[in-house]
Amino acid sequence: METLIVGVAGGTGSGKTTLTQELLDKCAGPPSVLFHDNYYRRRDELTYEEREKVNYDDLDAFDNDLFVEHLRALRSSRPVESPVYDFSIHNRSDRTTLVEPSPVIIVEGILIFAEPRICELLDIKLFVDTDADVRLLRRIKRDVVERGRTLQSVEDQYLGTVKPMHELYVEPSKRNADIIIPDGGHNIVAMDMVLNRIQRDVG
Ligand SMILES: Nc1ncnc2c1ncn2[C@@H]1O[C@H](COP(=O)(O)OP(=O)(O)O)[C@@H](O)[C@H]1O
Ligand SMILES: Nc1ccn([C@@H]2O[C@H](COP(=O)(O)O)[C@@H](O)[C@H]2O)c(=O)n1
Q: Top-level EC class, please (predicted)?
């Protein structure tokens, strides 16, 4: 089976998941999706308080060996049992989810263009570009409402690790993108271009 692997990167709150969902809704298929977030390392050896302090915006926070193994398996038409991460406990859950192979594979995550082993497997690289102030406002809302965080913890984490790692890894990785998309999944012109390209290659 011919496969096309589409990478969707961008800072936290930039609109990656929204763009991924648009692609899922509009591609025939449907595509397979691997979320890099689900490959955060298991941290059973740490207490909750210790896990709260981990730098989750560093490349080392992810089990990239497993991620690359799963991406290669999907590319070779083999299904994978993807881990499921639980943000409320800062740890991998005991559940997995079956991801079936498909001609179009979407890969999403803040750091996928910063890890060469992942980057080289991607056929189309999309970077969702959104101003830091907008991303921060979205992040505060999401972390408090959906991830059970306090305002203080969001502020501490943002200034302590999220912002510096964004500047060190995420922003420079934009140079590896094929297309930089302002306004993410709401950018109709960019979406049409990407969908046409997908249609041409695997349609
Ligand atoms: N282009 C956009 N315009 C306005 N709001 C958006 C846009 N893209 C995403 N959002 C909103 O911003 C929030 C974060 O988007 P999301 O796609 O989850 O970001 P990410 O996956 O990069 O963290 C969500 O509430 C989403 O509805
Ligand atoms: N236990 C964790 C693990 C990760 N994060 C944050 O998630 C962000 C990435 O997800 P996006 O949907 O925002 O792209 C990343 O910036 C990590 O800081 C967390 O808060 N807790």
A: transferase
